[in-house]
């Protein structure tokens, strides 16, 4: 058990354990159980879901969870089973037979690698099955051979790296037909997130409980040099968010930008090369926790005509004086030249609020006369021409950009960050003829 006082996951776990009563034998067995080191997300109390998808980053503990889940089902151990119910026929499904054998069964965190000495099961390689002392059997299958799942029947299944499966839909369907034994058939899916059709469908499906685990949550069991290296290299990128944060990231086919395009233009910028810096503000129509975000994006123009996006300080739930203070703080931090503020929603009030916070800040009010898509298209063209780059990774901004299509954002959300970006770049493109100045003077 990990965590500390004040950690909601840890405190919820403590409360759940306090409600359990163990007899002497159960207490003795508990002393060597995995819950002594497992995290709350790996050991859901009081009961684990019957249909459970664990989406996690590399090294987040997915495989260990799967191996312990199988062991607990075989032995009838809570919280993975109820009322001491034991499972005797378990399917282990991976992308390939080699993955099932080397990761799920024989890997360091697999079924054999984590088995206790006096209960280590036997692996019959030729028959592709794991035999437990009490007669339970775990059979391995490959996503390359859907027909192998026609006929066998099970009372539980552990599916590993579902996002990598070949023939994913057919294999999944055949497995569902085979899960017909026992009173409470159970399924566990452990996978690194990829936006495949099957993964997305299961994450939305009623009855499936989804748990997301981050690589850093398992830091105690990982080499510090590994975490440092992958964080330095991939933090904020699409690959890092997928493989480290366990996020499911999708691209929209009709969006103006793509993630691969945006990640290829990230690099540091020298402040002295910037001829002009503007802060663009797209205020929300209302205030409060449920209001749209206030888009606040900074960009600078280089003397050679290039544009660099410098910061995304957008935030949700701020009162007008809050977003105005945020914008002016960024203005001074970057030694900017101008704040550009859209006034469609608030009219003269927008400029007035900013001047109330800091009367000396120059403010230019802009009003949209065309739709968001039409305003964004010329800016997207500048990206396509290689004339815009980003000074750092801006995950939330990139998420909006890659979800911005002709109909707006998915779910009718407001593209506040994109709007601010467009206003900033449009203002800079109109003032590229100005001479550069020396910063910090």
Tell me what you see in this structure:
With 441 residues, the chain is α/β, with parallel strands linked by helices. The protein folds into 2 domains: 8-224, 3-Layer(aba) Sandwich (Rossmann fold), CATH 3.40.50.300; 259-429, Nucleotidyltransferase, domain 5 (2-Layer Sandwich), CATH 3.30.420.240. It is 32% helix and 17% strand. It is built from 14 helices and 14 strands. The chain has helices at residues 8-18, 24-30, 62-75, 97-105, 168-178, 197-204, 224-234, 238-243, 259-263, 320-333, 348-357, 372-384, 395-401, 416-429; strands at 51-56, 89-94, 122-124, 129-131, 137-142, 156-160, 186-191, 209-213, 274-282, 295-302, 307-312, 338-342, 363-366, 388-390. The strands form 2 sheets. Strands 3-4-5-2-6-7-1-8 form an 8-stranded mixed sheet, with helices on one face. A 6-stranded mixed sheet has the order 13-12-9-10-11-14, sandwiched between helices. Helix 12 crosses helix 14.
Which helices and strands appear, and what pairs or packs with what?
Elements: H1 8-18, H2 24-30, E1 51-56, H3 62-75, E2 89-94, H4 97-105, E3 122-124, E4 129-131, E5 137-142, E6 156-160, H5 168-178, E7 186-191, H6 197-204, E8 209-213, H7 224-234, H8 238-243, H9 259-263, E9 274-282, E10 295-302, E11 307-312, H10 320-333, E12 338-342, H11 348-357, E13 363-366, H12 372-384, E14 388-390, H13 395-401, H14 416-429
Parallel strand pairs: 1-7, 1-8, 2-5, 2-6, 6-7, 9-12, 11-14, 12-13
Antiparallel strand pairs: 3-4, 4-5, 9-10, 10-11
């Amino acid at each position: 058990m990990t965590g500390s006082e004040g950690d909601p996951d840890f405190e919820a776990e403590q409360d759940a354990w306090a409600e359990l009563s163990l007899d002497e034998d159960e207490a003795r067995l508990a002393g060597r159980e995995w819950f002594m080191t497992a995290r709350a997300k790996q050991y859901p109390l009081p009961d684990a879901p019957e249909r459970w998808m664990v989406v996690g980053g590399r090294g987040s503990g997915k495989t260990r969870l799967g191996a312990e889940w199988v062991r607990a089902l075989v032995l009838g151990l809570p919280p993975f089973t109820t009322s001491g119910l034991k499972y005797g026929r378990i399917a282990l499904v991976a992308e390939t037979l080699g993955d099932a054998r080397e990761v799920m069964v024989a890997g360091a965190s697999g079924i054999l690698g984590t088995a206790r000495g006096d209960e280590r099961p036997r692996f019959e390689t030729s028959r592709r099955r794991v035999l437990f002392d009490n007669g339970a059997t775990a059979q391995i299958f490959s996503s390359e051979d859907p027909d192998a799942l026609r006929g066998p029947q099970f009372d539980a299944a552990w599916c590993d790296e579902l996002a990598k499966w070949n023939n994913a839909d057919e294999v999944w369907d055949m497995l569902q037909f085979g899960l017909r034994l026992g009173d409470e058939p159970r399924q566990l899916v452990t996978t690194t997130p990829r936006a495949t059709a099957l993964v997305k469908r299961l994450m939305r499906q009623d009855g499936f409980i989804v748990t997301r685990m981050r690589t850093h949550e398992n830091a105690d069991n990982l080499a510090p040099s590994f975490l440092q290296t992958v964080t330095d290299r991939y933090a904020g990128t699409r690959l890092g968010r997928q493989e480290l944060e366990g996020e499911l990231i999708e691209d929209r086919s009709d969006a103006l930008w793509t993630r691969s395009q945006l990640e290829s233009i990230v690099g540091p910028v020298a402040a002295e090369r910037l001829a002009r810096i503007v802060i663009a503000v797209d205020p929300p129509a209302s205030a409060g926790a449920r209001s749209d975000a206030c888009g606040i994006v900074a960009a600078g123009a280089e003397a050679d005509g290039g544009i660099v996006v410098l910061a995304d300080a957008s935030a949700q739930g701020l009162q007008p004086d809050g977003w105005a203070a945020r914008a002016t703080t960024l203005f001074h931090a970057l030694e900017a030249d101008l704040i550009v503020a859209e006034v469609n929603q608030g009219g003269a009030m927008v400029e007035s609020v900013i001047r109330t916070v800091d009367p000396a800040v120059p403010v230019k009010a802009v009003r949209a006369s065309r739709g968001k898509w039409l305003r964004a298209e010329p800016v997207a063209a500048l990206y396509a021409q290689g004339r815009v780059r980003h000074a750092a990774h801006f995950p939330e901004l990139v998420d909006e950009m890659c979800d911005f299509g002709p109909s707006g954002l998915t779910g009718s959300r407001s593209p506040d960050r994109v709007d601010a970006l467009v206003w900033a770049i449009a203002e800079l493109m109109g003032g590229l003829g100005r001479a550069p100045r020396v910063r910090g003077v």
